[in-house]
Specification:
4-stranded antiparallel sheet; 3 helices
Length: 193
């Protein structure tokens, strides 16, 4: 597995920002961290999980997405607009996303259990997304059968019971996609066995 990444120091006034971007391939995420004197002052993370299913998506395409993200953060720092691009990093959107994000509570698959409860919270531009549809599928493209589907409540929360099939247990992960108001966000969700 090749690790893609970039490191750049950007000086703005008397402050040197260290910008570090990497592809977290096991999580299908592109992450850029900004440091000042060794302390993380911002994070920008996007999911490319929705791109993986596209037949023409490659490591080179992922590398280009990461390069663009890295440059966008550098440009924002140089223009004194860093906070418009990076934040706390707790909300992860799709590459090119329009504000929809999906968070989940870490889960553990109990020994011998037939299913796993995954709890999600769907946000639209930081606000609860009521009525968002959440669909969970296996991560194996050839067996991308739907495992569960539900809609978020008024607080943007939804819990789904996921059957612990052989594929799900082998990968210890699923793909979750939330859609709401013409927007979508896709994330790889890992759990502990």
């Amino acid at each position: 597995m090749t690790i893609f990444g970039f490191n750049t120091d950007v000086k703005r006034g008397d402050v040197v920002y260290h910008v570090q971007s990497e592809a977290r391939q096991s999580d299908l995420l592109l992450q850029t961290l900004v440091y000042v004197k060794g302390q993380c002052v911002g994070k920008h993370t996007v999911s490319y999980a929705q791109k993986v299913a596209q037949p023409d998506f490659s490591n080179e395409a992922m590398h280009e997405l990461l390069k663009v993200q890295h440059k966008t953060v550098i440009d924002a720092i140089q223009q004194d607009k860093m906070q418009s691009v990076v934040g706390s990093g707790t909300e992860v959107q799709d590459v090119g996303g329009a504000g929809l994000s999906l968070k989940w509570t870490p889960a553990v698959a109990e020994q011998g259990a037939a299913s796993l409860i995954l709890s999600f919270h769907v946000l639209d531009s930081g606000q609860a997304a009521s009525g968002a549809e959440v669909v969970v599928r296996s991560i194996v493209p050839s067996s991308s059968s739907e495992l569960a589907r539900a809609f978020s409540d008024a607080s943007g929360s939804v819990a789904l019971s996921i059957p612990l099939t052989e594929d799900v247990m082998r990968d210890a992960a699923v793909i979750a996609q939330a859609t709401c108001g013409g927007k979508s966000v896709t994330r790889k969700v890992r759990f502990r066995k």
